[in-house]
Amino acid sequence: MKKIGIIILLAAIIMNGFCLKVAGEVQGTEKQENPTSKDEDSKFILGNDLMSIDKNDSSINFRIGNRGLSILESLEGNKVNFRKYTNNDQDSTYSTYSGHDHSTRYREYSDNSREDNYKHFDRRRDRFRGHWAGIELGFNSYVTSDNSITLPNDIDYMTLNSGKSSSFNINFTQLSIGLSRHIGFVTGLGLNWNNYRFDGNNNIIKGDNNVIEELDPGSNLKKSKLATLFLTVPLMLEIQLPVHHNNLSLGAGPIAAVKLGSHTKMVLEDGHTVKSYGDFSLNMLRYGATARVGYGNFQLYGTYYKTPLFQTGKGPAGNDLYPFEIGVAFTFND
Questions:
Q1: Short-list 60, 63, 82, 62, CA closest to 71
Q2: DSSP state of 151
Q3: For residue 86, what are the CA distances in angstroms to 37, 137, 294?
Q4: What pLDDT digit, counting tens, does each position of 247-291 carry?
């Protein structure tokens, strides 16, 4: 408000001086039939375009920050253009004309103003920001081919401690493709750590024909787990519903992943730790579906993979186990 007030005050002073100047020139032309032209161009700049005045024989351009005006002399009267400068020095302009009949005033938007309106509309469309980049904390497990969380008796060694089987994800990059301000596609990249904590006093090993078998440690264990690391790539359609001063978001779509590493870990009663690195017949590539719902930067998410955790026919006793995870997410991008 202070800038606008300063501009209006200075504009009034400049217009008053300019009108006196024009009146003096008109009187001079009545005394001289052939007036001589004078080069009165001048420019004043303060700071890095903090304030500038550009004056020539037919106009005065005045600017403070990203606001400014220009006063032009025309046959219809004085023409005042108010401007708003962008970073590219493009300006949004409207004009006020005043002739001898001061009761007749109108505003005419220039082509620059129309173009800026279109750009402003495009920027509003580009404001769509999906919910992917951030941190996710959750629990993971797997189900059998008949979608049961209860495992067959012959592979009970694969039973998990559900309260300690955790997932941790860092979604470090995101691309939002807006169809409108509140609807668009979201994709990106993420790192997905899964810890499958075994409930029994055992671990697993790749046995004959690369089939997963039970590993008996020969002593009591404090804990035992299978750990995996995947690079994930989603493609979600997200809809955002404005609620109060934030958005309720709903997103879902396919997700793919590629395995970056895996290992097993056992911690013995005496505190000794044994780690074994290998592929453990895990599928290198997998795909599935992911969905999330949230308010603002807080999300609830779930992911289910249609690709078995282990290669077909090489899972425990030849069984296929399908991994899933559920948890909470805290996004950074909104």
A1: 60
A2: P
A3: 35, 42, 35
A4: 899 999 999 999 999 999 999 998 899 999 999 999 999 999 999
Question: For residue 50, is it left (φ>0), alpha (ψ between -120 and 50) or beta?
Answer: alpha
pTM: 0.63
Give the residue extent of every domain in the chain.
Answer: 2-126, 134-331
| Mean pLDDT of the residues in the chain | 79
Contact 253, 223 (CB under 8 A): no
CA-wise closest residue to 83 among 72, 74, 98: 72
Between the two ends of the chain, the Cα-to-Cα distance in Å is: 29
Q: Count CB neighbours of 308 within 10 A.
A: 20
DSSP designation for 133: S
Q: Can you tell me the distance from the alpha carbon of 69 to that of 56, in angstroms, rounded to the nearest whole number? A: 14
Placement of tokens 């860092």 in the chain: 170
* Nearest-angstrom CA–CA distance, 91 and 68: 9
Q: Which among 17, 2, 10, 1 has a CA at the least distance from the CA of 69?
A: 10
**pLDDT tens column, 119-129:** 544 454 458 99
| Closest C-alpha to 311, from 286, 290, 277, 276 | 286
Residue for token digits 């395995």?
Answer: 259
Please spell the DSSP secondary structure of 106-172, one letter per residue: -EEE-HHHHHHHHHHHHHHHHT---S-SEEEEEEEEEE-TTS-SSPPGGGGGG-B-TTT-EEEEEEE
The residue type found at 67 is R
Asked if 294 and 112 touch (Cβ cutoff 8 Å), the reply is: no
Contact 114, 93 (CB under 8 A): no
